[in-house]
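REVIEWER CHECKLIST
Item 1: Sequence provided? yes
Item 2: Single chain? yes
Item 3: Sequence as submitted:
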Amino acid sequence: MFSLNERHQYYLYQESADMRKGFDGLSGLVRNELGQNPLSGDVFIFINRGRNRMKLLVWEQGGFVLYYKRLERGRFEIPDVEAGEKSSLISWQKLMLIVKGIDLQSVRKRKRFSYKKTG
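Item 4: Structure as written out by the authors:
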């Protein structure tokens, strides 16, 4: 059932999200605030104002899946983005760093081969 990996696209919602929202409320944010299709299979990440709770919403075959993490101590680090953007595309690796509590400023990424599909 837990099927998230590097093949997905991850969109981090830049505003604070109300963690009382469930499937319908979060998919409404995706559609109305981000202008994206919540049924696309992309993963949408929401973090609350206190930055100690995170929800991930993704459509899988047959329905929505909602992952929820609450930190007992500490806060999620949010990556820097351009002003005025409602969301930012982040990598699976960056999401894992955020979830694990690793300082994003201290991470150095080494070059790796990446196959890019052409049109």
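Item 5: Key structural point noted by reviewer: The chain has a mean pLDDT of 89.
Item 6: Recommendation: ____
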